Amino acid sequence: MNSHDSQLSERLRTGFLGVIAFGLILFLLVQARFILICLAFAIIIFSLTSDAISAFARLKVPNWLATTLALIAIAIGLLWAATAVVAQVNEVVSTAIAYADRAQAVLSSLSQRWGPGAQEAIATFTGNIDVAGWLRSAAAQASNLISGSVLILTFVGFMFSERIWFPVKIERLTGDPDRARQVLGTVHVIMRRVNRYLVVKAGISAVTAALIWAIFRLAGLELAGAIAMLTFILNFIPTLGSIIATVIAIVLVLAQTGDPTLTLTLGGLITAVQFVVGNVFDPMLLGQTLRLSSFGIVLSLAFWGVVWGIAGTFLAVPIMVAVMIVCAQIPWLRPVAILLSQEGLPEQEPSSGLRR
C-alpha cells in the first residue's frame, strides 16, 4: 500500500510539474511571439537556401561566395516581398473604402427582395461589421513586415556563420558520435520534409493565384494583382486559407460590380478553382509529402493560431512536421508521433517507403 501511494504521489508530482512547465512555455511563446515568429521563418529560409548552397558547392562554387550570394538574394527577396505586400494591402484598403458605399447599397437592394425579416437581419449584421477598422488594422500589421524582415535577415546571417560548426557542436553536446549522427539525421529529415512541402505548396498556390488573377483581369476588375497575392499567401494556411481568400474575392467582386448575377458567376468560377485545386491537386501532391493526420493539422492550426495569430497559422504545418519527427525518435513520446501521422507510421518516407 505504501509502495502504491508512493507511485501515485510520484505520478501526481510529475503531472503537476508538467502542467507548470507547459504553462511556462506557453507564457514564453506568447510574450516573445515576435522574436520567435521571426526565428521560425529564419530557420525555414535557412533550410531552403542551405539546399541551394549545397547544390552550388557541387558545382565547385566556393562556399563563401555561395553564402554571400544567398544572403544578398534573401535580403532582396524579403524586402521586395515585404514592400509588395504593404503596397497591395494599402491599395486594397483605399479601394475597399471607396467601394464600401456601393456594397452597402447592393446589400440593401438584395435584402428588400428577400423581405423585411432578411432586410433587418442583414442591416444588423452589416452594422456590426467595422470593415474600415479591419482594413486599417491589416495595414498596420502589414507595416510590421519591414521590421520583421530585417530581424529575419539578421537571424539567417548568423545561422550561415554558424553553419560549419553546427555538426561539431552537436557532437560535443551529445558526447557520442553515433548519437550526434542520429540527431543530425533527424534535423535533415525535418528540413527535407518541410522544404518539400513548401516547394510543392508554393507551386500549387502560384497556380491558384494565377487563375484567380486571370478571372479578375478577364472580367475587367481592379485589384487583380492584390487578390492574386492574397490568394497565394492565404493558401499556405490549411483549409481555412482558401475559404478566406474565396470570400474576400467574392466580396471584392460584389463591391466593384454591384451586379448580383455577375457576382454569382465570377464567385462560382473562383469557388470552382479553389475547390478543384484544394480537393484534387492539393491532396494528390501533398498527401505523400506530409503524411500528417488531417485532424492533427486542424488542432495545430487552432493552437498556433491562438498563440501566434496569423503567423502561427502559416507555421502550423512545418512545426507539426518537426514535432512528429522528433517525437518519433523519443520512446516515451512516440505515441504522440503516431497520433500525428496519417497512417500511424511517422518514420515512413514519402517516396522510399517504411524504413526499418
UniProtKB/TrEMBL annotation:
Keywords on record: Membrane, Transmembrane, Transmembrane helix
Keyword field contains Membrane: yes
Transmembrane segments: 12-28, 34-57, 64-87, 138-160, 198-220, 226-255, 262-281, 301-326
InterPro entries documented for this protein: AI-2E-like
Record protein name field: AI-2E family transporter
Record's subcellular location: Membrane
Family membership: Belongs to the autoinducer-2 exporter (AI-2E) (TC 2.A.86) family.
Origin species: Paracoccus simplex
Primary location: membrane
The keyword Transmembrane is assigned to this record: yes
Recorded topology in the membrane: Multi-pass membrane protein
Xref: PANTHER family: AI-2 TRANSPORT PROTEIN TQSA, TRANSMEMBRANE PROTEIN
